[in-house]
Design a protein that fits this description.
Elements lengths: L22 E4 L7 H7 L5 E4 L3 H4 L2 H13 L3 E4 L1 H9 L3 H11 L3 E5 L7 H13 L3 E6 L10 H13 L5 E3 L18 H11 L4 E4 L3 H11 L4 E5 L4 H8 L20 H13 L2 E2 H8 L3 H13 L3 E6 L2 E9 L1
Parallel strand pairs: 1-2, 1-8, 2-3, 4-5, 5-6, 6-7, 7-8
Antiparallel strand pairs: 9-11, 10-11
Helix pairs in contact: 4-5, 11-13
Amino acid sequence: MAQSASSGLSLEREGKPRDKGVTYTNDRLNVLNKDLLEHAAEYIDYVKIGLSYPLLLDRSKLIERIRYYHDVGIKVQSGGTLVQVAYKKRMLAQVLDRLHSLGFDTVEISESAIDIPKETKEEIVNTIGRLSMDYIFEVGKNDPGHAVPVPFMISKIEEALEFKSSKVIIEGGRGRGVGIYDEQGGIVWDTLNDIVGRFGPPKLIFEAPLETQRTALILEFGPNVNLAGVSVDEVLPLEMQRLGLTIETLGVSPPVQNVQGSPAAKFVYHLIKAEHPIDQPTLIQRSGLPKRTLQAALSSLVESGLIREVSDMSDLRRHKYTPR
């Protein structure tokens, strides 16, 4: 695999396997552009082979395609449609076994079109575990004509986390009138803030089919926001946005001199801006700072009005921090 062009420079993000700043691409089953993939592979965490394609494609060719992705360090995931189809046709066991035999790493569990009983989802999760594959939940409906209420979205995210989904994908459809997007493709900020304020960006993966959506999410949450719905030919431009190498995102990591105070305060501010809301134990883990130093930095930032302290709704004795 080709080395990063940024090797030796202070531009590289966390390497794979990444827990933050992950990028999911879609495989449209076009001819593989291997030159492009070799350049982009280190910035792609998962490729999704969606719909019911795994049931239609020539088995040997699909296995070869998946092996190529593995060879360049990319994991392969099924799309949420497949589990819904399998449930409706009462062939879940056969479909999951086929995904395992083809070499899929992760199965997406979604209710984007139909509802699946909780007990059935538990069976699906257990079967996937026995097959030594991973799973991830997606929440939301892909029909622009039926907006999903925010409390319902929150309840589905909570359920997904109860099922130990490492992260939760927020359905974005084609980027218009679905999930956190309005009919013009703009972000509905009240919806986004309600969801993120409850769970925090690190637990969420935002499907963002449109470049403007990805730009807005990076500017809001920083370079380590998790994004899906990206085509392979958009991966390198996306990575430039993450690294602040484009005109639109030059301000994605504000210069340290904009934050008054000690070096620790400046460092903590950027951590909070990238991963808010975030609590003290997590900040200590992320920063490596002593507890007393971190607390002094937080006090300074709160007093200067750069961050605010909010109650942790899951435990009112604890607090989290978020930028103003």
